[in-house]
Amino acid sequence: MLDEDIRVPGWRLGILGLMVLAAGVVLLSRLWTVQIINSDSAIKTSEAQTTVKARIAPARGAICDRNGVMLAENRPSFDIDFYLDDLRRDYAQSHRGRMPMIPLPDGKDGKKRAEIDIVQIVKESIAPIKDTLGLTAALNEKEIREHYRTNRDLPYHYMTDLDFATVANFEERNMGVAGIRISQNPAREYTYGAFAAHILGYVGQPVNQNEHLASDGTPYETIGRHGIEAIMDAQLQGQPGSSFQRVSSQGYTIPDRKLDAMKIDPTMGNTLYLTIDSRIQYIAETAMRDAGVGRGAVVVMDPRNGDVLAMVSIPSYDPNKFIPRISEKDWNTLNQDPTNPLFNRALHTQPPGSTYKIMVALAGLKSGNVTVDTNFDCPGAIQIDDHLFHNSDSAAAGTMSLVHAICVSSDVFFYQYGIKAGIEAIEAMGKLVGFGHKWGLLGDADEDAGIMPGPGWMKTPEAAGVLKRARIDHWSHAQTANVSIGQGFVLVTPLQMATFLCAVANGGTVYQPRLYSHVENFKGDTVAEIPEGQVYNTLGVKPSDLKAVQEGMREVVSEGTGTRAQVPGVQLAGKTGTAQAHIKVGGEVRRDLKCWFYCYGPFEAPKYVVCVVVEGGQWGGTTTAPIVEKIMERLFAMDKGSTENVSFLQPAEGNFNGSTTDESHPWDTAAAAKPGDTVSNDADTDASSPTMPTIPSAAATSSTRGSSSKH
Amino acid sequence: MRALFRKLGQIGWSFPIILALSTLCIASIFVIISATYGNDALKDAPMKQVYYILAGFAVYFAIALVPYHWLVRISPILFGASVLMLIGVFIPGLRHKVFGAYSWLDIGPIRFEPAEFAKLAFILAMVWFLRVRETRMDKLSTVLMALGFTLIPFLLIKKQPALGSAGVFIPVFFVMVFAAGARLRHLALLVVMGVFGLGLYYWVSTKFAKTTEVAGVHSFQIDRIKSWVDPTLDKQGAAWQINQSQIAIGSGGVYGKVPLDWDTLKSIPGALAGKSDDVKSWMVDTQTGMGYLPKNTSYNDLIFSVVGELFGFRGGAVLIICEGTVLLWCLWVAAHARDKTGALLAVGVMAMLFAHIFVNIGMTIQVVPITGIPLPFVSYGGTFLIACLAAMGLVQSVWVHRKNFERI
Questions:
Q1: Exposure winner among A471, A562, A627, B392, fewest CB in 10 A?
Q2: Closest Cα in chain A to B330
Q3: Helices in A485-518 by DSSP H: which ranges?
Q4: How far, in Å, CA of A81 to CA of A156, rounded?
Q5: Site from B296, B365, B375 to mutate, A interface, most A CB atoms within 10 angstroms
Q6: Which of A1, A7, A250 is closest, CB to CB, to B343?
Q7: What is the span of the domain harbouring residue A434?
Q8: A332 CA to centre of own chain
Q9: Over the stretch B361-375, which tens digit does the pLDDT of each residue have?
Q10: What is the rounded CA–CA span in Å between residue A515 and residue A309?
Q11: What is the CATH number of the domain that holds A504?
């Protein structure tokens, strides 16, 4: 049977042959498609899946003072980074693709949805090294999930600022976990702590992944959030670099010279030079701290060009707390502090009190309505528009000249002087010197414009609300009288006052204040600059008139209200001011006097303008003038060669010392006896005599952000 | 003695096919060196494969000299033994689990896959059966009996579970029954019934059980079919293999990634001795070398992906042509066989190899779904390689003992 000579029909074998040939054609043509037609995209995909692009964080540019002293710079921070996609891949390999999943809310079609539980993977991945390395930092689960969804190719910084022991330990033991690496990243450092904190500002991490992207489309690690860091962020940011690495499917890197050559180094951001002199800043910072000031500001300027040499706001904070990110606790502490340490008092407004009289004096002289020789009789009080206006000491002083009136800071003189000069002249002069105007040194958002009241201001939309609250519908002499002594609606910033005083000191040129001079790239080439001494306006006051005002200010220090500011061997010219204000502290309304003193010196050849305001003091002449004296003394000593050793500063603590519910201030001893309809007051003299309560309008307009709302 | 020399001469005259087989086997050593690069557990695999090849050719020549009728005569015994062995893998003491399937048998020092042996025994037994039913080939009953005969190893192997390996029996059955002269309408009826039956089974089990699970079918098998239809569905999961395979092959382009120059060839002896550093220079930045092809299948089931990546379209096409040549030679031998027994034997071997080759290559380039069957003469693995060369030995035997043999 088996050996019978029967053959398989040839056609059946032929069909099988065709089947083999057809299969060959199918395979070859499909291979052609896969390997020739789709080759480019396959090469691209294979490159993409084997290449990990690591971003190299750029370093922020430094911020230096005018002499090149670095105030903000970078230090290396060792971070533990998670490469989440690598961890995921490694996990998949070692668990045969069984991934932990967490359910998501059902989709629109009612289907069950789930995503990979990346947090579980991270937990299991770090478990073997966790205890030996002491990786105790809690995992921010929400952040890891968000990072995995949006930016899984970028490393997730799990721990930053590791100490060297941990780094060494890690390098030694972390052989087994792909996707966990140590990287060195630049971290911001503020060399002197709370020093000039309000100028420098602080940085933060981007809130979401689309905020402020670098040239490579990835978000910057740090973003300037406040101060110079914020407004000059574009200059300070460097460009990120990138390195490329070949990785195996398990996340191990494979050396590849071709990819190494593709590395792009990050660039460092530009260096910003401030006009601040760190020594002067240090003098101002320490002078305020030494005096125990709980709230206040200092501005020191160079009257010859308008450069801001120091700008201090008390209380302050340490911007290093924001590196790498501020803890919620610290952030809440800063924000809930009623003294508001984040708030830059040098750029926010206060009623200026008598310091304003200098501007009024110049306005009158320029207008020609009054002259240096126009004298006024100065009784204890005068009647203006049905209101009785008192002098601060309510004492009759007889006939008085302008120079003497500045020296003793006579309110009654300036009521009459201001009315005679005319509110239009005062408003014009105020505008000329920049009152009611934002200088924009640290961005408009962080600065108040203040109010330069007058008929012109009354027509502006900003004034409408203020006027409505104060129930005022037309300009009156009483308003003018109030403005003349720096009360009423008047609000100025310490910077505005200092800028104005520069013009008085230098003979009439209002310089645009300057806080930063130029920007250099990492090669040292200047890439942008603000020229020195840009003129904003000129006062247009006759030199002899200006001389008279300067003389009055010299007398303030030599024999008037500001004698406590005298510095041996140097003649200063200044003016005191004490403005009434009330604040609410813990629901309790307190009297809170804004005590000003601003001066310049040396009188003959002015070099420094110092403007200090202390909130919650007694008098400009007693509270503030001694601080100015300390500052001036050290400034001149420094010029003579004494050294200032700038060192790390702790934040200045804020307090409400000096604000009081106690109505026993010398002003108020007779207040009860006075009719309630009187308007304003201001006092610099030590004479104790009754005046009147504050006008309500001043309170309504002066809004200080956050804590203190003046009553 | 004279007959033996004659037979050897006959084998000598079929040197082109021996050349094709040798080419595939020698190339396979190079491919296995590449595929096991960086896989410490398989450091000695290339050297082992060399021994397997030598053993395989020894078996090839031995079988070629044996008159195939003898083997067909004892085929019922061989088949019975293989069925026993297939049952043996379910016995806890004897079985050995590899990648989730009980497909190996441990007998003393020998460890092998009975399924591969069963394929050969099945072909021989099927030849025997078809010759027994020679006069009744036009009856449906013959076809149905052959089918029942086929289902014995099919079901046993599917139970391991190794669906791919089990599936090979189906085309072998069809091809052999077809070649034996079954009526086309009987075969068509079986095809229609099979398709309809599977469809009905799927519909009933999903409809009434209200689940996506189909009884008797593993969910990963359904996933493989889904990802074959649309590989973008689950790139990190079920479709990982099919995507990575095509990326590897596609990135090979026309010429592949490994230069076939002296430096490359020089590194082979070192690699065989287990020094992977020599291999590193040309493997380090390949998809295979970096582990993007699953390391545990790239040396056997997905070996064509490695060939495609390293040797490009050129290498892949040569491989397909070589394998095709082997298949066509089997048909050639069938056409020139002394009798129907030899012809059916050659056709059966052709069908078995064809199923492996087409499915194995096809699955790497998305022609068929991924399943776990190796590529004849190329994939790493002793049992399978020896089985394939033994099968070719059967065909060689048919050639040696062909009709006009005495006349030469």
A1: A471
A2: A17
A3: 494-506
A4: 5
A5: B365
A6: A7
A7: 278-315+347-622+652-701
A8: 17
A9: 999 998 998 888 899
A10: 8
A11: 3.40.710.10
